[in-house]
Amino acid sequence: MLRTATSETIWPTDAPEAMTSTHWSMIPGADALDDERELIEYYRHAAERGDVRAQVAMGQLLLQGAPGLAPDPNQAFQYLRRAAQAGDPHAHVYLATMYSQGLGVTPNNESALWHYRVAAARREPTALNALGHLYLWGIGVERNGHEAARLFRAAAAQGHIEAKYNLGILHQNGIGVERRDQHQALICFVEAARAGHRRAAWKAALLMQAGVTQSTCVDIALSFRRVAEDGRAVRMFLERARWLVEQSGLVSSRGSRVRRRVSPEQVAAMLDEALWRTVQAAWAGVEVAQYNAALLYASWMQDEQQALQYWLLASLNGHRQAMIEAGDLLYRWQERERWPVSVAWSWSGADRQRVSAVDCYRQAAELGTAEALFNLGYLHMRGRGGAVFDPHLAQRYLEAARAIDAKEAWLAATLALFWLRLEQMGQRLSPWYRWRPGFGRIRGEDVRSFWRSYRPRVVLVLLGFLGCALAAKWWIRRHLQPSNTMQRERPSIHLHRE
């Protein structure tokens, strides 16, 4: 039997988005099923009228199956043969795959090779990549590494991701090329990885780890982590968990549709399964799953300690919002006097370290997060959350937050800076009242307590004086300031009678 390595889904490049989408809802609702059935019926009628693209679409749907449509290779072969007779190269690729794997037809290596060559003659990239595999392994043809490299290069020039990966394999092993070139192989792997090829990303990380190019340990670790996050099992767990959370009504996202009313018992079962799946993905090292697991523990399970564990774990992986959420939780614990200023934390149980709200905010501030900078400024302005009382440091943090996010953080940071300047002004005035004749010596603590007690009234009085000053200035300009323009005297008109 003729084997091909074209494992990716083959779709016409000029097909509309609805036709090229092969993603079906994992557990669709009733309305989603109705929409998909209507779409299938539309393609069926269009294919019967002779629409070539609809014939190719129906052929793939009947090969793979869809909700409400059972796989039927025999009927798929009829649609694809009609499209191939009309000259569609994608239909030839499908027919070659069916002949090579014996789907609905008797396996025939010569027919499969003929269909691949017809499609490759029209520069169809998937057919070029498939022929490259045949020449590389000598399946149905004489083995020829140089011809395989030429075909892979032609497919890669048209943006075929799998061909770029295969070309990198040839450069890495010195097959069909002049010599082994690890640098050229790394370039091919990186180009394929940027387009979403998981194996290419893994190969590129291995070459960087071997020292082919100058790379830091952080870059190599991030490359391996992207490969782990892009795993099929992780994606399925996260998609299922997201669907369960949306259907339960705990959160809603744009475009999400709750199809039916669910009972409290069903909501509890959905959220329990969503939490379990999210935790499984979190243990795989996905920081988004770690952050979502913390949200579920905090909102659904009401377990703030477990939520803090996952937020801190996501913080170690660089999730900014998780750093801020962990800092907010530690600050709330301190304000409620449920926990000390810092907590001892360690995911593995060894090398426990103290973590406070200031540590979490400072970690996010180093990444340029305006919200963390504002929180640090507030904590240093009040001396809370494990931060020392330092007005000058608070002023620098607030100014940095205002400079980074001028759209959202500007107003809050400006008001906080205004309030900080008022407090600094009160502290400058307090030494003048330390000694008052006839009343004895007054301590600075008394002045500061007086200022903190009556500062709202002082602010209102100052604002009132400012308003009066602006009103007086406007009245003076309006009524007392002479006009700069010269008024011309209106000429008089005399009428004379005879």
From TrEMBL:
Pfam families: Sel1 (PF08238). One of its GO terms (biological process) is ERAD pathway. GO terms for cellular component: endoplasmic reticulum membrane. SMART domains: SEL1. Keywords: Membrane, Transmembrane, Transmembrane helix. The chain crosses the membrane at residues 458-476. Belongs to the sel-1 family. This is Protein sel-1 1.
